[in-house]
């Protein structure tokens, strides 16, 4: 049997509990203990949790109050993003020893295309093992990896043997791997979509594969085509070394809940200033402004407006954000405000599916 599309050798490297692991490495007294980065106040939010803390249900984006309630022994530490960036840079330098096709997703994870690599090593599995060992030797931190024919499968595979492990999905294993996959493991399938799929009798990749492209289009719109192809192992997205951001934003969480729009204007001005700085640094502008509002009960609301022209200066950003703020009454007191800019002038149209495919035998050395 052949897979009728181009095969690549893709590695997804994901650091294990990165922020918390850096803190435990730099402060040996924290090793083996439940640690949360951030969230150290009643208003705080957890940025990352060590594996010891995760056993108690502590996870990122959780309020510090709930995290402490779940794990009374939890140790909160302040985030040190400069330090995390420093370690991330060390890790990235290791990636570039093997390939220039590196696509960072964040400080702690990246895709690598090693189909052709600087070491001349035909085995992506061995390369991943070498990279993980070098990361450990250089930083004292562990990483996990997934290896397969495309980015989607590699990313799913990197979660399988965490922490400090790796999984290879060989070309001849791809179809079975995807058929056995829980539908919730498919990227793009969130809680709401998963529940919809359950109602349609879709619980695994095999169930999904049995649905026609017309059926998926009807029930899931534009995503239908993506689901149809990805469950068949078709995901042609290349590793992009210079990844273009889809949006740029800034937000602030407040120590005291704000109950009036008047009190929020000063906060919005500060956020707009920070957003302008980030836009100037990236040398980009955008058309779609989104105001993010998180209420005291943690419910989230967004309000957006698309302008007919690109903007990047704080005055226009703030003017539109104010308009969105006054668009409708607030539902409750507010604990967080954020402004983001999308529809950027550097953004390219989504690539069309590749028209031509190459038939590659499944005997492909991984």
From TrEMBL:
HAMAP family: DNApol_IV. Pfam families: IMS, IMS_C, IMS_HHH. Monomer. One of its GO terms (molecular function) is DNA-directed DNA polymerase activity. PROSITE patterns: UMUC. The gene is dinB. Poorly processive, error-prone DNA polymerase involved in untargeted mutagenesis. Copies undamaged DNA at stalled replication forks, which arise in vivo from mismatched or misaligned primer ends. These misaligned primers can be extended by PolIV. Exhibits no 3'-5' exonuclease (proofreading) activity. May be involved in translesional synthesis, in conjunction with the beta clamp from PolIII. CDD domains: PolY_Pol_IV_kappa. It is an enzyme of class 2 (transferase). Belongs to the DNA polymerase type-Y family. The record marks 19 as: Substrate discrimination. Keywords: Coiled coil, Cytoplasm, DNA damage, DNA repair, DNA replication, DNA-binding, DNA-directed DNA polymerase, Magnesium, Metal-binding, Mutator protein, Nucleotidyltransferase, Transferase. It comes from the Bacteria. Its EC number is 2.7.7.7. It catalyses: DNA(n) + a 2'-deoxyribonucleoside 5'-triphosphate = DNA(n+1) + diphosphate. Residues 258-285 form a coiled coil. Residues 10-190 form the UmuC domain. Binds 2 magnesium ions per subunit. Mg(2+) binds at residues 14, 108. It is found in: Cytoplasm. The keyword NADP does not apply. This is DNA polymerase IV. Its cofactor is Mg(2+). The active site is at residue 109.
């Amino acid at each position: 049997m052949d897979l009728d599309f181009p095969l690549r050798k893709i590695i997804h490297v994901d650091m294990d509990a990165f922020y918390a692991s850096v803190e435990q490495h730099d402060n040996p007294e924290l090793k083996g203990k439940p640690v949360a980065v951030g969230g150290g106040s009643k208003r705080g939010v957890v940025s990352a949790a060590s594996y010891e803390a995760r056993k108690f249900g502590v996870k990122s984006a959780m309020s510090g109050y709930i995290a402490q309630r779940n794990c009374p022994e939890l140790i909160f530490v302040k985030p040190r993003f400069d330090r995390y960036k420093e370690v991330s840079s060390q890790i990235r330098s290791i990636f570039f020893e093997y390939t220039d096709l590196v696509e960072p997703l964040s400080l702690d994870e990246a895709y690598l295309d090693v189909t052709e690599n600087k070491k001349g090593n035909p085995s992506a599995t061995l390369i991943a093992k070498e990279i993980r060992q070098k990361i450990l030797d250089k930083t004292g931190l562990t990483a996990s990896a997934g290896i397969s024919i495309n980015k989607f499968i590699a990313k799913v595979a990197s979660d399988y043997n965490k922490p400090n492990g790796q999984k290879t999905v060989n070309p001849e294993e791809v179809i079975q791997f995807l058929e056995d996959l829980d539908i919730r493991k498919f990227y793009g399938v969130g809680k709401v979509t998963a529940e919809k799929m359950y109602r349609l009798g879709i619980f695994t990749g095999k169930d999904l594969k049995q649905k026609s492209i017309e059926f998926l289009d009807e029930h899931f719109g534009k995503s239908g085509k993506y689901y149809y192809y990805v469950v068949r192992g078709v995901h042609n997205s290349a590793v992009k070394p210079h990844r273009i951001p889809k949006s740029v934003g800034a937000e602030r969480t407040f120590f005291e809940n704000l109950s009036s729009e008047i009190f929020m204007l000063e906060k919005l001005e500060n956020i707009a200033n920070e957003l302008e700085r980030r836009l100037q640094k990236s040398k980009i502008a955008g058309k779609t402004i989104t105001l993010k509002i998180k209420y005291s009960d943690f419910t989230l609301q967004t309000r957006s407006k698309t302008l007919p022209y690109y903007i990047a200066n704080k005055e226009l950003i703030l003017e539109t954000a104010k308009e969105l703020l006054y668009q409708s009454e607030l539902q409750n007191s507010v604990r967080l405000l954020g402004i983001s800019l999308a529809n950027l002038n550097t953004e390219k149209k989504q690539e069309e599916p590749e028209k031509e495919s190459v038939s590659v035998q499944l005997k492909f050395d991984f």
